[in-house]
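Lab manual, section 2.4: Encoding a predicted structure.

Procedure: take the sequence of the chain (553 residues), apply the prediction step described in section 2.3, and record the output as structure tokens. A sample record is shown.
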Amino acid sequence: MNERVPILIFVVAILVAPFYMEAQIVERTRPNGWENLVYGGRFMDRFQPMPELGQMTSNTWGASGVVPRDTLNGIEDKKWSYWGGNIRKMEDGYYHLFVCRWAEDSEKGHMAWPNSEVVHAVSENASGPYKVIAEIGKGHNPEWYITKNGKYVIYVIDGYYVADAINGPWTYAQFDFDTRDRPIIEGLSNLTFAQREDGSFVMICRGGGVWISKDGLSTWYQVSNSSVYPPVDGRFEDPVIWKTQVQYHLIVNDWLGRIAWYLRSKDGLHWKVDPGEAYMPGVAKHQDGTMEDWFKYERLKVMQDSHKRAIQANFAVIDTIKWNDLPNDNHSSKLITIPLTKGKLISITNKNPITPETKKITLYIRAENDFDPITDINFESLRFGAPEWVDFGKGFKFEKVEKKGKDALVTFTGDNNGITEENFSAKLLGEDTAGNLLFGYTRLPETNYLEPALSARKPILNSSGKRFDVVVENFGQVASIESTVSIFAIDGTHYRILGKGKVPPIKPYKRRTIQIETESKFSNSEEQRYLVTLGEDPKKNVLFRSATKRSED
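Recorded output:
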């Protein structure tokens, strides 16, 4: 492993420690309107009480806010400090966790994390307790996934481990990154991954940049021109991405404000921010209402079921300011698990596209082993429509229900469901007959979920000064059709068109070099910034944008 990056991170952490010790919390002002969200309108409403795995005990480490607690939840012990990691249930019936740890009595306490190691732990129960069965190697902030070809990959900062089986043997390697003439958005650390339909992977880096790899091991290509995070003040880190049968999901944490944000996407490339907190301190509660008041909740990962629904969250938690966690003291960190309300399996039966003019929508709600939609739903509580409508109590109302085998066919009617061309999913929101949250997402009829994703590299002006060569690549999962690209020179806040040309169809993961003639000779310079778009509008369908010059920030 390249040791220089962890050492550099450690040095920076020591230099800035005095500042962070004084400023570990900033109170963020919530956006206007969040106070009008109904229950279930924010992701945080999905957190359920933690299961009781053993007796609550005070015979353990921790500040007063986290004792007594159930020490069988997740993974912890007095010898090690644990951090991060995600969980999957495998064919052997066990739940497998790859998590990192370092000795609690390390001279630098919590700040010994750059020397952490990744270990393999298992449990018969999704919530824990997890027991370590193997040591993998040095590394921090692990996230593991399985490629289409059956390779097991454990990402760590600055590299990854790969094996043909979950029990190894493991080989260390480093990813190849191609920025494609773009600046890396806040560094390549704390990476998170989701597999696409064709076996390729989308990755979000710490700063919110989007990257694509054809198989999760070959070169990662940066395709975004800017961060996909919410356009608000925040010290963002610890993104986590996952894909369900309906859409992609992303949560990113503002560690200073201790508030996380939730986003959704049709393709993993273009993201929509949903209102409401995704999580914040206070989500770790027990059946009797007792709260584990952890100082920090970081490194969120989600566990998915066989239908790819998020059913459990796990966090790296610490009971105090990180720099106050010293060797051989009463402070430490661990991994905790919290169940999530799982979305219902629903689908629209309408054949025609849903528009704001649609007056009636019929929805299948599927029965499951632990769910009878006919007897378990409070139908009068249901709303259905665009997520940004039902999250605020609007949308279509329930009209009637019919039994279809074990499933329910529910009819919704109203004057406006809120669904427009901008929507790629619809949301069901309400309660079950016990008053618990009930929700689900579904895809929309006649909506194309597999589209080409064209992206360009920086235009290259040839020696004549009258022709640009532009490499256009397709990172989508289907071939593109013939299209037009335009090149603009960016002069401050103004765009000056230089030329346009035709792009022939491009197959997935292939590229074409397009030659675009200019009307007059163009003088190039290293300071010149360019914009490449699909079509002729400089504000839409941006394929490439040169980095902003500092003087124009």
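Check your result against the sample. Residues 387 and 427 are 5 Å apart (CA to CA).
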